[in-house]
């Protein structure tokens, strides 16, 4: 049974991007994002940001994550504007509300996979270590990593398994949203589909939104909103 708090969390995610402009330092005022506007409502929970290399899709994701601050525009999560947050507020936003999944996994090779998963929770420090370990183990099982793998280091796993560990890590702090930047880029076709299907399944299981950056058109069928960029502009917004 879904608890009231879970329902509120699930309905939280309305995202409004309004007139976003961003240029990188020393880019001679070239706009990587050029007047980008769109809305993601509460009913669209698997959102794909697509476009060719250099279209601005990863820059847009960085802006949504609060990793870069646009020179102009707003990014509203409900009524909360990421662009107006100070560094402390941004850190809290990223640690508590957003889970990150990267193309290169970014797992710590000196730690076993359970330790990799609970590391962000230790940093947040809201509960005791035993609680984190238990949740990390539960998450690993939920993404298809067996108990006999728990003590292994990342390099002892396949690429697909490492990405599953990275997804479990992204969920450890119970975020509202997972943002994934080309998470299948280093995987073969079979594992790529498995990772996309796993992300899709987590929407209801974990009450989250997923925003996926990809150039792979074969994944479009999984999305309920597809935002296509070209030269830093939104050229399609399909539902």
Stated plainly, the CATH topology is called Rossmann fold
Overall pLDDT: 92
Query: What coarse outline follows from CA principal-axis ratios?
Result: globular
* Low-confidence runs: 1-11
Helix content: 25-40%
Number of structural domains? 1
Counting DSSP E segments of at least 2 residues, the number of strands comes to 10
* End-to-end Cα distance: 29 Å
The radius of gyration computed from the alpha-carbon positions, rounded to a whole number of angstroms, is 18 Å
Q: What pattern of helices and strands is seen along the backbone?
A: HEEEHEEHEHHHEHEEE
The CATH superfamily title:
P-loop containing nucleotide triphosphate hydrolases
Structural class: alpha/beta
CATH class: Alpha Beta
Describe the sheet with the most strands. 6 strands, mixed
Individual helix count: 7
> What strand line-up does the widest sheet have?
6-7-8-3-9-10
Identify the notable features of this structure and list them briefly.
four-stranded antiparallel sheet, 239 residues
Write up this protein.
- Helix content is about 35%, strand content about 25%.
- It is of the alpha/beta class.
- The chain has one domain (about 5-239): P-loop containing nucleotide triphosphate hydrolases (Rossmann fold).
- Helix 4 runs parallel beside helix 6, helix 5 packs across helix 6 and helix 6 (about 160-170) packs parallel to helix 7.
- The chain starts with a helix and ends with a strand.
- About 40% of the residues are buried.
- Mean pLDDT is about 90; it is low at about 1-10.
Summarize the structure.
With 239 residues, this protein is an alpha/beta fold. The chain is built from 7 helices and 10 strands.
């Amino acid at each position: 049974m879904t608890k009231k708090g879970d329902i509120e969390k699930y309905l939280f995610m309305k995202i409004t991007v309004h007139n976003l402009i961003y240029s990188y330092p020393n880019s001679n005022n070239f706009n990587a994002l050029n007047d980008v506007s769109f809305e993601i409502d509460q009913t669209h929970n698997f959102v794909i940001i697509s476009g060719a290399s250099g279209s601005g899709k990863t820059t847009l994701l960085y802006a949504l994550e609060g990793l870069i601050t646009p020179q102009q525009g707003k990014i509203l999560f409900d009524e909360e504007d990421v662009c107006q947050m100070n560094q402390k507020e941004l850190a809290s936003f990223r640690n508590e509300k957003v889970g990150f999944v990267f193309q290169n996994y970014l797992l710590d090779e000196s730690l076993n996979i359970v330790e990799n998963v609970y590391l962000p929770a230790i940093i947040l420090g809201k509960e005791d270590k035993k609680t984190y370990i238990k949740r990390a183990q539960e998450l690993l099982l939920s993404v298809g990593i067996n108990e006999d793998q728990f003590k292994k280091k990342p390099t002892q796993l396949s690429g697909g398994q490492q990405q599953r560990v990275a997804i479990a890590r992204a969920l450890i702090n119970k975020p509202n949203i997972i943002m994934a930047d080309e998470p299948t880029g280093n995987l073969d076709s079979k594992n790529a589909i498995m990772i996309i299907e796993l992300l899709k399944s987590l929407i209801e299981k974990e009450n989250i939104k997923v925003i996926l950056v990809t150039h792979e058109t074969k994944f479009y069928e999984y999305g309920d909103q597809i935002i296509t960029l070209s030269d830093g502009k939104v050229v399609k917004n399909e539902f």
